[in-house]
């Protein structure tokens, strides 16, 4: 892939992307969130078309116009979460959409025989061919996803964060499968934030930063620390955090909190007026923290305290009653009614406040509250009747945030608060967040954006494999924070 560029509206996802992968090798592609990795892979997989640049396979220019076109070229992508139908068998999933036929009918015997060959290659029992996918573990489902890719005669296999949801033992199984594939001549593009594992599986690494390819390197010429430095560059992040947050009892405290398979025994405290950023790589357990605090997920152990009192949010409504607000990570799916107006979206989270007699929405008050929110957060819109779908990502995100601020929350949790917004909107949202803290709220920011974590934090806690591994004061070094998240011991933490 050479000379690749791609923009989404005002956001320049890739400026100058280059990727060269040799046959029969494992080639790692790394970079921070927003570096351009995902866009490069979507272009390779035919899911997006580049604005400039070209893709060549075996030296010949390849027109990857669609995902089907990529598959025809032998390019297959396996994503972090297995994309399989749980009620179909392994064989049915592997050949879904490209069934082997004989005399117009599906040739089940031929399909099952071919799947048995693929299962042997990836190390699963032959009996799994006729087993429903729902009976398999997550790791086994991922192996089936690889088998599905190989069933399409893949020559270039892209593994996107394959280890993020696996245990250490399951990762070893994955590596065994990858080595077997490489031995057969398959090229593997391996994307991972877990930098330490690259030194076990990859032979070359391409580093991206800010939409550009920094360079490609032989793995033996690198260390984790050097890789981190290449990813973050030499420009320090301008931090806005304070070291003089008033020394007051915590508004939010988490004690021994565990949830699901990713979060283990977390202790955390956020004081009034403080912005604490919780940073980690994909699958570190940070997302589970936000869900537990807002009542979306039940913890398996530990407790949540607000103002020193143990509480256990049973639902988002209960969390709101406790004075907890949440801006969810996925604005479109979890945070807004995109074809409804600004006023509707703000009112939707505050119906008890904006209703008359608990039945009718006070339309005049709804419009007034929406206009106040527009003014306070500097939302660029003609008026409160504008639909969210007609707004930029940054202004839509401000509306999602505004809904939580109608009744000022004592505790505000922001999960990926600037995901999918341009640089200007990001700075505005950061300014709003700092203002919320200065008004006395405890603010917990859960983010996988390293620059955001450092820029916003009065205190920064790094999560790795569900545990807090480092604690930094304001103005932390990008290299130290990323090194801690990636598995290397960081420098002195504050």
From TrEMBL:
Keyword ATP-binding: yes
Annotated ranges, domain ABC transporter: 1-235, 240-490
rRNA processing listed as a keyword: no
Family matches, as Gene3D superfamilies: P-loop containing nucleotide triphosphate hydrolases (3.40.50.300)
Positions in coiled-coil regions: none
InterPro entries per the UniProt record, alphabetical: AAA+_ATPase (IPR003593), ABC_carbohydrate_import_ATPase (IPR050107), ABC_transporter-like_ATP-bd (IPR003439), ABC_transporter-like_CS (IPR017871), P-loop_NTPase (IPR027417)
UniProt-listed CDD domains: ABC_Carb_Monos_I, ABC_Carb_Monos_II
Source taxon at top rank: Bacteria
Keywords noted in UniProt: ATP-binding, Nucleotide-binding, Repeat, Transport
Source organism (scientific name): Pseudokineococcus marinus
Protein name in the entry: Sugar ABC transporter ATP-binding protein
Listed GO MF terms: ATP binding; ATP hydrolysis activity
